[in-house]
Structure formats: C-alpha cells, structure tokens
User: What shape does this take?
Amino acid sequence: MTASPSSDDRLARAPVDGGGPDRLRDRVADWRNRLLASARFQRWAAGFPLTRPIARRQAHGLFDLTAGFVYAQVLYCCVRLRLLDTLWHAGPQPLATLADRVSLPLDAADRLVRAATSLKLLETRADGRIGLGPKGAVVVGSPGIAAMVEHHAMLYADLADPIALLRGQRGPTRLGAYWPYANTEDPRELSEDSVGGYSQLMAQSQPLVAAEALEAYPFHKHRRLLDVGGGDGAFLTAAAEALPELELMLFDLPAVAERARRQFAAASLGDRITAHGGDFFADPLPGGADAISLVRILHDHDDARVARLLANVYSALPVGGTVVVAEPMASDDSAAPVGDAYFGFYLLAMGRGRARTPAEQRSLLESAGFSRVRAWRTRQPFLARVMSARKDTA
Assistant: This one.
C-alpha cells in the first residue's frame, strides 16, 4: 500500500497551463468576466426581455450571498426563541400573542416575523395571524437542523475574523474546544462529560445522513456491519430498524462507546448491537464484520490520518469485505457550496479535516488496497454521498 499524497503534494503537482483547449477556456472565461463586470452590459441585460430573467436571477443570487449572514441570524433567532416550535404546537397566533410567548417587544417581534416571512420560515394567514411557512415546517420536522443552527453560534464566533483563521492567527477556536478529540493527544482518555455535547449533536443530526446511506447502499447483502466512529449509535439504531437480519457492532472512543451502550439498552437493542471502545487510529478494530461503515468520519481528518484509518479498516475486513463511506463531499455541482464552502470553513475552525471530491476519496481507498470503488446515488447529495470499495486480496 502507498501513502496518499498530502494537500501540499497535490498543490505542488497541479498541472501547468500548456495552451490548447485549456488556454481557450481561459480566454473565454476572461471575456465573460469582462463582460459581466461592465456596468453598461449589466444595465442592458437587466432591460433586454430575453436576458432580463437571467440578469435578475443572478443579481438576486449575488445579493443573497452578500446578505446570507443576516438570513442565517434570522433563522437562528427563530430556532433559539422556539418561535417555530411555538407555532407548530399552538397553531397560528396573532402577532401580539406571539410576541408575548417569545418574550420580545411588539416592534421587535414584528421585525423578526417580517424577516422570517420573507425567508418562508413563517407566513401570514388570511386573518392576519402568523403561522409556519414551508421552510419553517421543514425545520420543525427535522430536529437535526435546529440542533445544527444552535450549534452554529460557535462557528459564527470563530468566523468573526475569517482572514485571521485562514492565516492561522486566530488562536484556539470554540469549535476546536467543542470537538475535543480534534486537539487531544490521546482521545481514549476523554471523559463522558467531555464527549457528551458533540455526541448529542451527532445523534440529533445523524438521522438525515443515515437515511441517505441506508437507502443508497444495499446493506442487506451483508451479514455483520461494524460502524466505526459511530457515536451514540444513531446510524446503527436506524440500521437495526431498517435491516432486522443484520448483525451490528459499533466502535468509538471508550467514553462514547459507553454512552452508546446506554442508548442501545434504552432502545431495547442491547442484545442486538455490541459497542466496543478504542481509538480507531491506534487500536485494532473488532473482527468478524463483512462490512464496515464510516459515516461522516473521513472529512474530519487530514489525508495522513485517513490513510491510517483506512489501513486499519482494511486489516479488520475479510477478503470480500466492503467499506462504505457516507458523508458530504466536495464537488463541482449543486452540492459544491456544502462541501467546499460550508465544510471547508467549518473544518478549518474545528482545527483539522477537509471535504474531498469523490475522485479524492477513490484515490485514498485505492491507496489503502481497496478495489471496485463505486459511487451510489443519494436523494440529497448535499447531505451525503455514498461510496463503497471491496477488499479483494489478503
């Protein structure tokens, strides 16, 4: 097996423009950019009937990009004040009643309601009462979204000076402290108290990814599944319900594995799922599984650590065994802002890791010795993409 190239290696080996089609594409892109930067062209495109819808859509998208931080804060206020939950349980409310329920002055409540209505989190009913909008209903129906929104308060603080963060001048970050394993010399020594916060967040947000992975990949063809880095066991709990014949195991840090055992016992799954504690970089993984899943694990680590983990996974699998990777990935399609923008900066603030393209994931898997790498279609690629690979030789 060969080690995967580092980020610096990839940059150093980037191809140098040698002319030909690449140079032609550059010239076309330069011409396009000069045209779009022209105020005269912008005015013309906004007025010409055939280009007007495109120009307006592009202008609106650019303004949304500029104002995105404010939009995110409006959503945060709605979640933090339990405004959406209040309307879900109590039904549409007059503005004055709603202001009283969330402890806001009437004029402040009106300002928040107007903002949230413009973002389709809320809507005004025919009698003037305030009700949930379509996006607000989705947030209420997906507790993981609300949990991530509240969690983002730390990310907002860490991104107060993003340039300092990029230059490595930010110092300790709140996210780095929140994910203690990211900056701990021996994560096996972490206590249950120190892993409780992030384990709970993962459990709340994991169902969204679990649903994508369980629908995309045919886990039913396996006998026993080991979920590495499985946290509180949210993925395996979903797998237990969807695949009643599948034997299940979990591996995570000792303190996390202990939390998982309690969760499994509470869900009457203690006899079906076994939880094992250890460090998946340093300790051998439990044997006996013909499939190993890595759900939102690889993007938390740099290439060298991922190579070490995949080598450990390879050793634990029998010949013919399969590794399944499920996580948001970098891409050049509509999911790109999630992988490259959101996770690019989130993981920077956390202190390690990066989103990778499917091609980069394939390279890491093949470098670890795996073959037959395959991508599986998911309904929501921005939430997770799924890839699998086989161990064909000992």
Summary: Strands lie at 122-124, 130-132, 224-228, 247-252, 273-277, 291-295, 322-327, 371-376, 385-390. Residues 52-80 form the longest helix (29 residues).
